[in-house]
UniProtKB/TrEMBL annotation:
Pfam families: TRAPPC10 (PF12584). One of its GO terms (biological process) is early endosome to Golgi transport. Transmembrane segments: none annotated. Residues 133-166 are annotated as: Disordered. This is Trafficking protein particle complex subunit 10. Residues 14-190 form the TRAPPC10/Trs130 C-terminal domain. GO terms for cellular component: cytosol; TRAPPII protein complex.
Length: 203
């Protein structure tokens, strides 16, 4: 297993539970579990300074139609190929129904560059999200000084269109390389205060 994906939904500020029709925060934590392996050596692998990194695309989907993903639903990140490297993604979702709702699905893909000698390449870094990236090589109990952290602008590869840019290729990660630790988790959503209850008496 190369990556662990954990998703968590938080209610709006000042509220104990999510309500139907209200925006809630979705946090996705992507964690690398191992150092460089043979399966990582492909077109997506790049080397800079003292570490390797690979490009991944994440996508949040809800096939059960319980949640509406507001704003961007996917993006491309540059993930360090080092154990305990993490990337946090923050989104907004809106519950459409009340009850115990399963979390939306989070999918990971390898983001492979398009190779063309006749096309002008856009700087790949302008596609990459690195707003919440950290690499911890000394364990979770070490101070932040042992972590490599970087912040930058956020771009969504799914919603952005660049004229003349060749389309990249997405490669699904094989089964067993990604573990979704929040699979099966449910979130309690209560009805909005604006919902009306119709009582029907049958005699």
């Amino acid at each position: 297993t190369l990556y662990n994906v954990k998703a968590e939904i938080f209610p709006p500020s000042g509220m104990e539970y999510c309500r139907t029709g209200s925006l809630c925060s979705l946090e996705v934590l992507i964690t690398r579990l191992s150092d460089l392996l043979e399966v990582d050596k492909d077109e997506a692998l790049t080397e800079s300074d003292e570490h390797f990194s690979t490009k991944l695309m994440y996508e949040v989907v809800d096939n059960s139609s319980n949640w509406a993903v507001c704003g961007k639903s996917c993006g491309v990140i540059s993930m360090p190929v080092a154990a305990r490297a993490t990337h946090r993604v923050h989104m907004e979702v809106m519950p459409l129904f009340a009850g115990y709702l399963p979390l939306p699905d989070v999918r990971l893909f390898k983001y492979l560059p398009h190779h063309s000698a006749h096309s002008s390449q856009l700087d790949a870094d302008s596609w990459i999200e690195n707003d919440s990236l950290s690499v911890d090589k000394h364990g979770d109990d070490q101070p932040d000084s042992s972590s490599l952290k970087s912040r930058g602008s956020v771009h969504s590869a799914c919603s952005s269109e660049h004229k003349g840019l060749p389309m990249p290729r997405l490669q699904a990660l094989p089964a067993g390389q990604v573990f979704n630790s929040s699979s099966g988790t449910q979130v309690l959503v209560i009805p909005s205060q604006d919902d009306h209850v119709l009582e029907v008496s049958v005699t």
